[in-house]
Design goal:
By secondary structure, the protein is α+β, with helices and mostly antiparallel strands. The protein has two domains: about 5-110, Peroxidase, domain 1; about 115-184, no CATH class. The chain has nine helices and four strands. A four-stranded mixed sheet has the order 2-1-3-4. Strand 3 (about 160) and strand 4 (about 165-170) form a beta hairpin. Helix 2 crosses helix 7 and helix 3 (about 30-45) packs antiparallel against helix 7. The longest helix is centred in the first third of the chain and has 17 residues, at about 30-45. It is globular and about 60 Å long.
Length: about 180
Amino acid sequence: MENSGGIQASLGGRYAIALFELARDGKALDSVAQSLATLKAAIAQSADLKALTTSPVVGREAAGRAISAVATKLRLDSLTTKFLGVLAHNRRLSQTGSVIRAFETLLSAHRGEARAEITSAHPLSRSQVTALGTQLKARAGRDVALDLKVDPAIMGGLVVKLGSQMIDSSIRTRLNTLAQAMKG
């Protein structure tokens, strides 16, 4: 399997490669990807879950029990649940975010997709996401997996990262550019 050096070099990346290979060999890529997306959304919405995954104070056994309960509540697949148990046992729950990002990158490469990170000031509607996906597919020349983020600090517009390209049409950047020009 072709892996980028950046993914292999990071601790979260090595865990993601292991999870990806287990999922691929077990023909469970889609279920693991869905479980990780569910977990990612839950971490973004729950301060308590985020604290569980980032706190160095929580012990191995307590973290294992807590993450098992979370996995059951979120109805995560068995491979992802076991994997999270390994992260808890190894005191690596803090790597959960980087594991999810690296897994998404590996999955996109496996599917022949490009990945695009879209940051908006407000959540995008389904039709906006569809239109944006169509535009990016035309630009990239292949399917594009979208990773949507909301950051009110950009005030409006979008910041799109597609591979090594970045398109920043945010109001914050435009105001900063205007401020620099006025100093000038």
